[in-house]
Each structure stands twice: as structure tokens, then as C-alpha cells.
User: Which sequence fits this backbone?
């Protein structure tokens, strides 16, 4: 029989907040984890944490998909990792319902809970959105999108039907925040680069449309740099439609609120996020925006022994009274640090501290050697901003192992042309085998 566990800490989600909280607890509670007086469990459907700011570079083929994730079991050797999802929280009974990757759901008792389940794409009931739409939050989506863009170039090159060609070469991105602008800029850059290998496609044949409901792009870098980004994108031939909404996309026929209509084979939806659905499956308090009601000390409001942070939590911004912290990695990483320290304080019967961080601005990559930045009031554009984007994210990506791999990928890309092959077949690995079986039957 193992040592008696006095305190079981369950962390729901192994992303930014979940992984960094567990990492800090692993460091600070080394003795307790060794003698068994504390046990930590992280639950996540995946066995890795995704470094989301690198997804656009992974989609563009500058980074290997495996290098933009951190394997949880390797990073957290003293923590139990369970793969599956938490489907319900019963905080009154201190139980979470856990549905493992395979098999029957079971209840897991805990003493302390950390809700770090992040967010999912916020969609609208737009006709046909799922016909051609894809989100941009996971490694799977980023790589599928890369394969799709390259595959559409193959389709366009190989068809003699002008309609099919036009449709294949039309790409739409809805939402001009971080994710949308970076994904569009990186993919457009990759597609432009790839056209040199095609006989019948020039960069001018590929149409990129960015649709944004408000009157600005990339609000994360402020109005001045946002305006500069808008000009940049337009100079590159990207059609940016501000104060415009997607009205329908049925069967790939895109209709915009400004009356524009066209056919497209690919639509990327990055128009905001909403908290992971698990936050409403249980007895935790929810605020008016559907997030977990959270205090400035990162505890769940009105409860004991429950903590929350990141995209799933409505954390009051003490530097900006009346406002909430925006759902971004800048807050998530810093909140994880305070949250873990508050758990340790709580275990030791000490006073908890408030989370306080003033948003410092942001950096964004806009394709190879292009970027925009506004950090601590320093405004950069072009190559300097791109360099800052890379160095900043390199310093932030978890583990030395990942940092080295990311640098190796970038270095290779410096000396060799980027990979422009579509491996869409990987999404249907059994097709070839099934066809072989079917051909045997016919014989
Ligand atoms: C493309 C892209 C680019 C971005 N770029 C930037 C940037 O440059 N700078 C910046 O500051 N921010 C950026 N962000 C935002 C940033 O990535 C998020 O704000 C951050 O990941 C939030 O951290 P989190 O821990 O709350 O959620 P996540 O990191 O998303 O982690 C949530 C985890 O919970 C798991 N989970 C969900 N539901 C359950 C469940 N029911 N049970 C168990 N586990 C569950 C998920 O699998 C996931 O692993 C970007 C986001 C995207 C999509």
C-alpha cells in the first residue's frame, strides 16, 4: 500500500494555466509529493500542452507540429496525468466526473480543485458554417489547414474547370484578432511561396479575404499598429473587409453582409472564444459572460478550495477597475504562478495574494521576416518586430528541449526552402488499405 494521501489537488485542463500551475506546485511541494501528503492529478484529453502562439508558424511549415507542444508526462514527472475529460464538477461533494479516453466514466474525489479548461471557438448560428469552416485553436486544426491550403493549390493546378479553380484558390478568414491575422498572414505567405512550384498559379491568382465585424484589425497591438497592419495586409493583396459579417456559407457559397458573394473551399473561423463547456456542468458560479466567477485571488467566488484562471475564468483586472483580464497567454501564465502560490499558501494556512498584472501589449508574426509589435510602449514593425516576436516566444515556450527544437527548425528553414507538401492523406490513413481490400473482393 502506498503512503496515505492527505490532499488531492485535481487540475482540470493541461494547457497554459493547468501545466504551469502543476509545474510550479511540483517545484514548491517537492517534499509533500515525495512523502505522499499531497497528490496532484492533471486531466486533459491530450497528453500535451499546446503553445498556441506558435500554431500559425506550424501551419506555415516553419515549425514541426511536435515542437509546438510540451509532453505533460515528461514535464510533470511527479504529477499524475489522466487523459480524458472532466464532464461534471460537484464541488459541494468534492468530486469531478472523469470520462477517460476509453471506458466508463468515474468519479474522482479531491480536496482542492483548479479549473483551467480554457476556451473553445465562439461560433454563431450562420447557415453552412460547418460546411467549409474550421477553427484555429489546436495543432490538429493548424496542420489540417496547412494541408488543405496546399491541397487546394494542387486541385487548382490539375483542373480544367475555371469555377473549380477559382473556388479552390479562394480562402476566407473570419475574425481579425491574434489568431485570425497571424493564421492568415502566415498561410498567405506560405501559399505565395509555394506558387513558384506550380506552372499555372501565380500569387495574384490566390484570393485571401479577411472578414471582421468591427472597424479595426489586431486590437492587441493598439490602434496605431493595428492601422499599420491593416495597410500591410492590403498592400499584400489581401482583401480586408471591416464592419462586415459572414451571413452564410452554405455548400461553400459565401455571402457577406456588404453584399459580396463568392464560392470558397476553405473558411477559417477565428471570431472569438468562449469558455470550455465544462464550466457550466456543475455547481460552480458563472458570471454574465459564461465564465467561472473568480476573485482577484484566483479562487472561485463564494467557495472554499476551488481555484480558476485563464480563458475559462472571469478574473477581475485590478489594474483596470470594472474590467476583466482578457483571455490571453500573457495573463494565463502569470495567473498560473499566483494560483499555484496561493494553493501553497492555503495548504500552509497563510493569507492568499491578489493577481495583479497590467497588460503590456503584444507581438504578432505576419509571415516570414514580417511582424508587428507594441510592447511596453515600444512600437516595432517589419523585420524588427518579427525578430522580437520570435525571440519573445522562444523565451516563453516551455522546456529547454522544446526551445532547442524550435531553434533547430528555424535554423533549417533559414538554409533550406520551406516544406510545401500537403500530407492530407494523414487525415485518412486507412483509405489505401481499404481500397486494397475492396480491389481483392472485386477479383
Ligand atoms: C492561434 C492562437 C494564437 C495565440 N497567440 C497568442 C499570443 O501571441 N499571445 C497571447 O498572449 N495569447 C495568445 N493566444 C491565446 C492563448 O493561447 C490563450 O489565452 C491561452 O492558451 C489560455 O490558457 P488556458 O490555460 O486558459 O487555456 P488552454 O491553454 O487552451 O488550455 C486549456 C486546456 O484544457 C483542456 N480541456 C478543455 N476542456 C476540458 C475538460 N472538460 N476536461 C479536461 N481538460 C479540458 C484543453 O484540452 C486544454 O489543454 C493565442 C491563441 C490562439 C488560438
Assistant:
Amino acid at each position: 500500500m502506498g503512503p496515505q494521501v492527505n490532499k488531492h489537488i485535481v487540475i482540470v485542463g493541461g494547457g497554459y494555466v493547468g501545466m504551469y500551475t502543476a509545474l510550479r506546485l511540483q517545484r514548491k511541494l517537492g517534499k509533500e509529493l515525495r512523502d505522499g501528503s499531497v497528490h496532484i492529478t492533471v486531466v486533459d484529453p491530450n497528453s500535451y500542452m499546446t503553445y498556441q502562439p506558435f500554431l500559425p508558424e506550424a501551419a506555415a511549415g516553419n515549425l514541426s507540429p511536435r515542437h509546438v507542444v510540451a509532453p505533460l508526462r515528461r514535464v510533470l514527472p511527479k504529477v499524475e496525468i489522466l487523459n480524458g475529460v472532466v464532464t461534471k464538477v460537484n464541488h459541494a461533494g468534492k468530486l469531478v466526473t472523469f470520462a477517460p479516453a476509453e471506458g466508463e466514466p468515474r468519479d474522482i474525489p479531491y480536496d482542492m480543485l483548479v479549473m483551467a479548461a480554457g476556451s473553445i471557438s465562439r461560433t454563431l448560428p450562420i447557415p453552412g458554417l460547418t460546411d467549409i469552416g474550421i477553427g484555429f485553436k489546436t495543432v490538429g486544426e493548424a496542420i489540417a489547414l496547412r494541408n488543405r491550403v496546399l491541397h487546394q493549390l494542387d486541385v487548382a493546378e490539375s483542373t480544367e474547370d475555371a469555377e473549380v479553380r477559382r473556388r479552390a484558390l479562394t480562402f476566407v478568414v473570419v475574425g481579425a484578432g491574434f489568431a485570425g491575422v497571424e493564421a492568415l498572414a502566415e498561410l498567405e505567405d506560405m501559399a505565395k511561396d509555394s506558387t513558384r512550384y506550380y506552372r499555372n498559379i501565380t500569387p495574384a491568382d490566390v484570393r485571401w479575404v479577411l472578414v471582421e465585424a468591427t472597424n479595426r484589425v489586431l486590437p492587441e497591438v493598439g490602434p496605431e499598429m493595428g492601422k499599420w497592419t491593416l495597410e500591410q495586409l492590403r498592400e499584400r493583396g489581401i482583401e480586408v473587409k471591416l464592419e462586415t459579417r459572414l451571413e452564410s456559407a452554405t455548400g461553400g457559397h459565401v455571402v457577406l453582409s456588404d453584399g459580396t458573394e463568392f464560392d470558397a473551399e476553405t473558411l477559417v473561423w477565428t471570431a472569438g472564444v468562449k469558455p470550455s463547456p465544462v464550466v457550466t456542468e456543475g455547481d460552480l458560479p458563472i458570471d454574465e459572460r459564461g465564465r467561472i466567477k473568480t476573485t482577484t485571488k484566483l479562487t472561485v467566488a463564494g467557495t472554499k478550495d476551488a481555484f480558476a484562471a485563464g480563458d475559462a475564468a472571469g478574473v477581475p483586472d485590478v489594474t483596470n477597475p470594472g474590467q476583466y483580464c482578457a483571455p490571453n497567454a500573457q495573463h494565463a501564465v502569470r495567473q498560473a504562478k499566483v494560483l499555484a502560490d496561493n494553493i501553497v499558501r492555503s495548504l500552509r494556512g497563510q493569507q492568499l495574494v491578489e493577481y495583479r498584472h497590467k497588460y503590456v501589449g503584444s507581438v504578432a508574426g505576419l509571415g516570414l521576416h514580417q511582424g508587428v509589435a507594441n510592447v511596453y510602449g515600444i512600437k516595432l514593425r517589419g523585420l524588427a518586430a518579427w525578430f522580437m516576436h520570435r525571440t519573445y516566444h522562444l523565451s516563453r515556450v516551455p522546456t529547454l528541449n522544446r526551445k532547442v527544437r524550435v531553434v533547430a527548425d528555424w535554423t533549417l528553414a533559414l538554409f533550406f526552402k520551406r516544406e510545401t507538401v500537403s500530407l492530407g492523406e494523414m487525415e485518412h490513413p486507412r483509405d489505401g488499405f481499404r481500397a486494397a481490400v475492396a480491389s481483392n473482393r472485386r477479383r
Remarks:
- The CA atoms of residues 385 and 391 lie 10 Å apart.
- Residues 12-18, 43-46, 52-53, 55-56, 85-86, 116-118, 136-137, 178-179, 276, 278, 310-312, 327-330, 332, 362 surround flavin-adenine dinucleotide (CB under 6 Å).
- Residues 139-158 form the longest helix (20 residues).
